[in-house]
Amino acid sequence: MSYKATNWAYDLPLTGSAKPVLVALADMADEDNSCFPGQRKLAAMTGRSVKTIERALTYLEGMGLLSRVKRYGSNGWRTSDRYVLNLDVVTLDLPDKVTTSQNDYQSESLVVNLARLPDILSTTTRQGDGAEEPSVKPSVKPSGPKSKKKPSTRLSDSWLPGEACLIFARENNIDLHHEVGQFRAHVAANDRKQVNWDAAFRMWLGNVIKWRKPGDVPKPNTDWALRV
Question: Does the pLDDT value for residue 77 go beyond 80?
């Protein structure tokens, strides 16, 4: 048992089935913060179904809280994975609820009758379900937490196109003052939000050229300062 790993798991702001699964893994962790229980054993320890355990493990791995290493027995058959806990992650910025069906929450309880647990819990010499312990423990570098996506925003009243848009308009003889006004009107009328407004306007200018008729003569545009 690793008290450091167990305290780490308890302190993380997880909810749902992810919390008891991570605590169970931490409780079995060795000095390398790793263990290799089978999913049936985790289900028996937490009082959750095997399907719920699978979802919780996938969620914890996606959050960067653990890494999985495939393991094989001497006969070549796949056995329980090794789970390496990433104790470097101490805060979580992403939602930590594991999606499960309503029936899962209604039918499963964290209160477990220890007298009815499978025999696998009584095994003290091995952590897994009868699989051999590899002679050399693989070195795994846990992945870090995922970064947040930049949010979309409304167009600011003070926004002006960047230098790339100015150069593009000049090279293609586009009346920039007119197009900025048209762009603002279109955004306001459609209640638009964007992550990068300069890129959105660059696409707008591209469409200006795309929809020009062959006989159209562009109006010369010589003022590039965009005075407001």
Answer: yes
